Amino acid sequence: MSLIDTLQDLVGQVPDVVQPLIGAAAGAIPFIEGEGGVAIGIIGGIPPVVAAIAAMAGNFLSVAVLVLLSSGARDAVVTPRREKVLARDGMPAGSDSALAAAPAERSDGSRSAARRAKFQHAYERYGVPGVSLLGPLLLPTHFTATMLAASGVGKTRILIWQALAIIAWTTLTALIASGVMNALG
């Protein structure tokens, strides 16, 4: 049985009050996200608005945690490196010298390298808004948000655009799923 089937069955087996938590948990899982969480909820019998809010909340909370962790990790790596280079070059530590300390690109042909290349191409072409809004067509929001944070984009900017994308895609999926369920019911 697949994870999606398991979650749908679980929605039907728990009390009504707990059902939105299953939708939120589904929304927090990469590749299922808000879109899948809302579909699981609606198919499981949760009212569409409740299912959508729960799935959005689960998706956004997991993305927010990843952005904060990724951004903190990036700062922990880049700040000492920047200070070391500034010290070597004789510049004061508080200097606004722009050091683009880009991580070395791997060209090992792995899936992660392919994802990074796909992300980089989309980022250069569309920027943060485009990658956030169109990203779910290519990669889960979890990966997109993490890569944006690792690239040095500000946390607030990432979270605003990711929230807008999660709201838009989850709402669209909720409308489609509830329309299909109404047509079948």
Summarize the structure in short.
With 185 residues, this protein is mostly helical.
Structure description:
There is one protein chain. It is built from 7 helices and no strands. Helix 1 runs antiparallel to helix 2 (19-27) and helix 3 packs parallel to helix 7. The protein has helices at 3-13, 19-27, 33-43, 48-88, 111-134, 141-150, 155-184. With 185 residues, it is an all-alpha fold. The protein is 74% helix and 0% strand. The chain crosses the membrane at residues 49-69, 126-153, 159-184.
Low-confidence stretches: 95-107
Structure annotation, total helices: 7
Helix content bin: over 70%
Average pLDDT, all residues: 85
Rough shape?
elongated
How many whole angstroms does the radius of gyration measure? 20 Å
Beta-strand residue fraction: under 5%
| Sheet of most strands | none
State the total count of DSSP E strands: 0
The ordered H/E elements are HHHHHHH
What structural category do the secondary elements indicate? Answer: mainly alpha
- Distance between the ends: 25 Å
Keywords: Membrane, Transmembrane, Transmembrane helix
Organism: Nonomuraea cypriaca
Biased composition (Low complexity): 92-104
Region (Disordered): 88-112
Properties at a glance:
mainly alpha; 7 helices; 185 residues; single chain
Layout of SSEs?
Layout: H1 3-13, H2 19-27, H3 33-43, H4 48-88, H5 111-134, H6 141-150, H7 155-184
Helix pairs in contact: 1-2, 1-3, 2-3, 2-4, 3-4, 3-7, 4-6, 4-7, 5-6, 5-7, 6-7
